[in-house]
From TrEMBL:
Name of the molecule in the record: Iron-binding protein IscA
GO biological process terms held by the UniProt record: iron-sulfur cluster assembly
Keyword Metal-binding (UniProt): yes
Organism of derivation: Psychrobacter luti
Family: Belongs to the HesB/IscA family.
Length: 106
């Protein structure tokens, strides 16, 4: 299961409304950074038939099959701290992260 906090869901809903289109958001992983994996987010206009779809607080979340094993149980939040803002991921599969927080290991 993949879930969002109300702040994260509202941010995605607002962005999709401003775009004027979109079915939801795709969350995936890619090889990157010094720890090995990084989160990737993209808006989905047409879901891929192989994606797993979750719904959290009115937002469709799509996960590709290769990423699902690393993301099961993920909680997404959206935080603002001073001039910085962005998604924060709480992943029960994560074993560690790099010092800058840009990548993680499972």
């Amino acid at each position: 299961m993949i879930e969002m906090t109300e702040r994260a869901a509202q941010h995605v809903r607002d962005f999709l409304d401003n775009r004027g289109k979109g079915e939801g958001i795709r969350v995936g992983i890619r090889t990157a950074g010094c720890s090995g994996l990084a989160y990737v987010l993209e808006f989905v206009d047409t879901p891929d038939e192989n994606d797993t779809r979750y719904e959290s607080l009115g937002v469709n979340i799509f996960i590709d099959p290769k990423s699902l094993v690393y993301l099961d149980g993920l909680l997404m939040d959206y935080e603002k701290e001073g001039l910085n803002e962005g998604f924060k991921f709480t992943n029960p599969n994560q074993k560690g992260e790099c010092g800058c927080g840009e990548s993680f290991t499972v």
